[in-house]
Amino acid sequence: xxxCYAEVRNVQVKPNDTVEIKLVVDVDELSGQNEELxxxxxREVNTSLESNQISYREKVDPETREPVLKYMVxxxxxxxxxxxxxxxxxxxxLPEEERSSVINKSEIDEYILACEGVAMTIPGGIFEGKEVLxxxxxxxxxxxxxxxxxxxxxxxxxxxxxxxxxxxxKAKAWQDWKNNSEQTTENDNQATLEFxxxx
Length: 199
Hints:
Layout: E1 6-13, E2 19-25, H1 34-39, E3 53-60, E4 69-73, E5 79-83, E6 97-104, H2 105-114, H3 129-137, H4 142-149, H5 153-198
Antiparallel strand pairs: 1-2, 3-6, 4-5
């Protein structure tokens, strides 16, 4: 079995009532799986394709075009939500607008699994989302987990995606903070190395 993230590059309907799907995979994604992949050439395989991206909607201020709800990440990585209050309450408030944003599921899952504190429960869900994602990250099969929790696989997948949408904006803020922290550390290390070289 091959596990990897791939980009659907092209879909083409052929004259013989078949559909040709072209997948493009990063070389790093296939690390250690090339031999297994070559064995599958010319064979029938079971395939399940789903988007690795989650679309979520945010309310934005029609004047500033900024999200109404914002997120601040503390030094320890915890994420706090705050709202931008209007300074002049006498001004006639325009109705809020919404915009759509996209983030990878893998980035959301990384945030959920790394997030400290109380385990996050899926609103209206029948299982604890963080626990399920942890088990999936450890290699457990979603079909086995669905059987364990007594829920259809499709319902579990849909509920997990709803959970991901619920925390997507927080995950985006956390990912930006993490990337900035890593870049700052890298720059600091480079500056230290240059200083030591000059010495």
